[in-house]
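Key result, reporting period 2: structure in, sequence out.
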């Protein structure tokens, strides 16, 4: 089913009674519930846009009406094991907080308190009906995302660290690491916790000179039903998103602007995600903001309800149109209704693991493929021909609005009813939507729960009042499946209807070999569930195996070419080290060896996490200027983002101003200067000649800087301890520069469209500057090459041959000569078209890797290859500098990561 999107139009407040109301609710046929929002076309008030939603609530809708229609029907589903996500979206002041939290009076209570009291009521009923056999526990976590950082609201603001809590992806789901979870027994308990947490939010906001509504607030209600040793967990998440606002209108100061930029960025990314999903894009930009990572719209299973809050006044006209457009597209996102599984309590595992807590519960399942609902489900035009022609260029209409002449008969609207409206869900809109849950879930699997112990670091760092198990491994239990589909909580109250754990074990077949260790604590049992003998290993044996595996992984990472060479990689085939298709021979271990590998695998995962954490923290500590520096940098980056937004909205003057302001934070940043100059050129503020001269100078400067950087990078790599910033050590440039450039790359290249002549001029300049610096093929100066050659003690030296010195044309050079091993390694990684692998290259983030793969898919066909580094530099968005960084990173990364891995490994084994 798709995300359910409903709109709520708030009434006018007392102070607004004289305001002009322009938004209204309408229905397709008289007497039917409202499903349409109508708003005038700002360019032509004789026309109205119509947006269709699953349901629309007008000013007369009470808190109780909304709850009964939109949330109450899903409480049953929640207890059947489905996760439920409700989020309020809309412009500042449209009633999101009122909808979610509401007022203190009984009638004013919002969806959240009503949800909780109903959860407790149902929980008590289940306990009673089962004669106490089933217990229902509720745990709360509550956190906010402020300026793209995650803060726990259930702990006092003093406990906050500037960086906030980290997020982590595990097996396709996003978790907040170290989040507090509090048990909550009844409504009184909830109110105490909720009020306390909201006070924390306000206090923290005051300290930061912010306002609580400037953050996204996420409440997570975990419901755990336990009958004997069977446990069913599901989660309701209620999210009050921060409102978007126009900086000019609210006359924000700098701090507010940064805040707004962060909010707008995350909401902008959310709208980008919605667009990308609805277009069916391969790449969804979830990772570009924490909010979208957590929300994982379209990737989280269960039920998702988006409540679009609207203010009816004219003063909100454009903002309202914008949020109508975004939410209208959100209807096209499909979410799989998959119940969480009953799991069995397991003995405590002896190995340490990280505690995760997040929007989703601990169920770890692969992300579902995203599917847009067919285009036929979109809204369509019903306006007159001239109106259609006029409005076809109208952005609002283009994104899904329906225009009609005001006098158009309302029955015309049924031609653009979306698919969702044909579903049972929509048929029962406005109060009877519970029927949508009556159908059986599409799939159901069972899991064996893995109780987790907190990892030492996390346990001591964060106060965890509850150590509820979170991480699970996925196994399939057909017996359970047949026993539980569509039965929900009531089944739990009748445990005799379910197979006993023992018999379930016999039916368990492993789905994911890497997680099979969850079925048994290590070194305790002699037989696995599938009768595979398990070896009891000594620490020394495991150590030896880990060492071997570490070596293998490092070899695979740093010298991926070796692993790739014998294969012909399939385009876009994700790396999958451990997955075997169900039913394949490899699925079930044939001997004890796989069991050992699993043990090793777990250790390796822990090691990888440690390496990641170390490199994160070291890069943080080495970033320029400590906290103040970071704040400044982040302000600069926010300005860049704002500028990018302004540019995308076509406000080039405004964008230029913001880029110029950003330059104050990144003085002399070459690409930024280039961007400013390009915009000036475009706005006619400088002549083409001046622009060309400036560009030439920048190219020259870049050439000489590259030379210096390469030398210093290698110097650093030789002397770098494992605590030096990974990025800095690898590339020799500051993380600030790199971040600016990352941001740059997102928008700079595609920014001002080049004419063919400009492109040719740029190419000539590039080749000229490459020729001048006698490169290896990637724009490295001869001076730096000599430095590199003489300084390098690892494979960098031997890989780096001098043959290109006499050949300034990289393409010629690379086509006439055999590439060096490192060049080959780099090209092999690129040609693998595996974004994960490409991302491991220095200078390649998710976007660049994905763009590269997309480009290769588009231009090279399935088996074409990039044959030289020179050719690689011509790929849009890659460029000389990126290739350089990737090339150098290969050697330095190998050196650093082996040091890191060994250090981490020895740290780890001390406590083993
Ligand atoms: N349905 C409603 N009935 C009565 N009053 C409402 C309703 N919706 C909103 N309000 C009032 O409108 C004002 C703004 O609402 P609210 O603070 O909930 O907006 P918001 O969208 O959460 O804003 P922000 O994004 O700034 O947090 C509040 O005074 C609230 O009480």
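The corresponding designed sequence is given below.
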């Amino acid at each position: 089913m798709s995300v359910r999107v409903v709109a709520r139009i708030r009434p006018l407040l007392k102070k607004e009674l004289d305001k002009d109301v322009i938004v209204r609710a309408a229905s397709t046929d008289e007497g039917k519930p409202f499903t349409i929002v109508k708003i005038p076309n700002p360019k032509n008030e004789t026309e109205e846009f119509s947006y269709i939603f699953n349901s629309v609530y007008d000013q007369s809708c009470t808190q109780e009406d909304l709850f009964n229609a939109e949330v109450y029907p899903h409480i049953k589903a929640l207890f059947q094991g489905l996760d439920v996500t409700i989020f309020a979206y809309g412009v500042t002041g449209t009633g999101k907080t009122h909808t979610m939290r509401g007022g203190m009076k009984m009638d004013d209570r919002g969806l959240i308190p009503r949800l909780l009291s109903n959860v407790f009521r149902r929980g008590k009923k289940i306990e009673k009906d089962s004669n106490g056999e089933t217990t229902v526990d509720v745990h709360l976590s509550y956190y906010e995302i402020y300026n793209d950082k995650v803060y726990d609201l259930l702990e006092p603001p003093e406990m906050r660290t500037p960086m906030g809590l980290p997020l982590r992806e595990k097996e396709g789901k996003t978790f907040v690491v170290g989040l507090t979870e509090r048990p909550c027994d009844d409504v009184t308990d909830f109110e105490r916790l909720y009020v306390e947490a909201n006070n924390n939010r306000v206090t923290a906001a005051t300290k930061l000179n912010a306002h609580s509504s400037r953050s996204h607030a996420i409440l997570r209600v975990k419901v755990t039903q336990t009958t004997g040793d069977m446990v069913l967990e599901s989660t309701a998440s209620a999210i009050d998103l921060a409102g978007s606002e126009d900086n000019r209108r609210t006359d924000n100061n700098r701090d507010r602007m940064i805040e707004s930029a962060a909010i707008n960025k995350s909401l902008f990314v959310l709208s980008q995600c919605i667009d990308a999903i609805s277009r069916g894009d391969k790449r969804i930009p979830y990772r570009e903001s924490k909010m979208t990572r957590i929300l994982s719209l379209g990737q989280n299973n269960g039920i998702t309800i988006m409540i679009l809050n609207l203010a009816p006044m004219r003063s909100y006209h454009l903002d309202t149109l914008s949020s109508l457009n975004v939410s209208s597209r959100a209807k096209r996102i499909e979410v799989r209704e998959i119940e969480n599984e009953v799991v069995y309590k397991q003995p405590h595992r002896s190995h340490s693991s990280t505690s995760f807590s997040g929007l989703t519960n601990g169920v770890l399942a692969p992300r579902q493929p995203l599917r847009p609902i067919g285009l036929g489900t979109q809204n369509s035009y019903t306006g007159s021909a001239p109106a259609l022609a006029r409005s076809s260029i109208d952005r609002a209409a283009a994104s899904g609005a329906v225009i009609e002449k005001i006098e158009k008969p309302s029955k015309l609207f049924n031609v653009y009813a979306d698919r969702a409206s044909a579903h049972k869900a929509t048929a029962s809109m406005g109060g009877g939507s519970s029927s949508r849950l009556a159908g059986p879930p599409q799939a159901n699997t069972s899991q064996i729960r893995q109780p987790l112990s907190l990892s030492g670091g996390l346990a001591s760092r964060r106060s965890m009042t509850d150590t509820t198990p979170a991480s699970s491994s996925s196994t399939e239990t057909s017996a359970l499946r047949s026993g539980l589909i569509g039965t929900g909580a009531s089944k739990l109250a009748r445990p005799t209807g379910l197979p006993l754990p023992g018999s379930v074990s016999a039916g368990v077949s492993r789905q994911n070999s890497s997680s099979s260790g969850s079925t048994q604590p290590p070194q305790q049992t002699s037989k696995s569930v599938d009768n595979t003998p398990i070896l009891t290993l000594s620490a020394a044996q495991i150590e030896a195996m880990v060492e071997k595996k570490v070596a293998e992984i490092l070899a695979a990472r740093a010298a991926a070419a070796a692993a790739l060479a014998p294969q012909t990689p399939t385009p876009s085939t994700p790396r999958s080290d451990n997955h075997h298709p169900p039913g394949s021979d490899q699925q079930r271990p044939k001997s004890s060896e796989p069991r050992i590998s699993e043990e090793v695998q777990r250790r390796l995962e822990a090691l990888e996490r440690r390496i990641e954490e170390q490199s994160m923290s070291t890069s943080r500590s080495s970033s320029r200027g400590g906290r103040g520096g970071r704040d400044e940098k982040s302000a600069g980056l926010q300005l860049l983002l704002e500028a990018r937004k302004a540019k995308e909205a076509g406000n080039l003057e405004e964008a230029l101003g913001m880029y110029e302001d950003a330059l104050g934070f990144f003085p002399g940043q070459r690409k930024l200067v280039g961007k400013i100059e390009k915009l000036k050129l475009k706005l006619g503020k400088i002549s083409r000649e001046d622009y060309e001269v400036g560009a030439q100078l920048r190219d020259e400067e870049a050439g000489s800087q590259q030379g210096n950087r390469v030398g210093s990078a290698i110097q650093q790599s030789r002397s770098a301890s494992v605590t030096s910033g990974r990025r800095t050590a690898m590339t020799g440039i500051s993380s600030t520069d790199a971040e600016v450039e990352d941001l740059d790359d997102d928008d700079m290249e595609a920014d001002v469209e080049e004419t063919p002549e400009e492109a040719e001029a740029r190419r000539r300049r590039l080749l000229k500057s490459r020729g001048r610096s006698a490169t290896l093929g990637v724009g490295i100066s001869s001076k730096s090459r000599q430095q590199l050659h003489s300084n390098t003690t690892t494979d960098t030296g031997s890989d780096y041959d001098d043959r290109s010195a006499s050949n300034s044309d990289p393409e010629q050079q690379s086509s006439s000569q055999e590439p060096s091993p490192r060049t080959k390694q780099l090209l092999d990684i690129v040609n693998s078209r595996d974004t994960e692998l490409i991302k491991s290259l220095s200078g390649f983030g998710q976007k660049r890797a994905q763009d590269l793969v997309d480009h290769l898919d588009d231009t090279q066909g399935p088996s074409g290859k990039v044959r030289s580094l020179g050719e690689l530099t011509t790929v849009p968005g890659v460029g000389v500098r990126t290739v350089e960084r990737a090339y150098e990173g290969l050697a330095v990364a190998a050196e650093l990561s082996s040091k890191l891995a060994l250090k981490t490994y020895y740290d780890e084994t001390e406590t083993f």
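The radius of gyration is 29 Å. Residues 1-61+303-336+368-437 form one domain. This case is discussed further under Risks and Mitigation.
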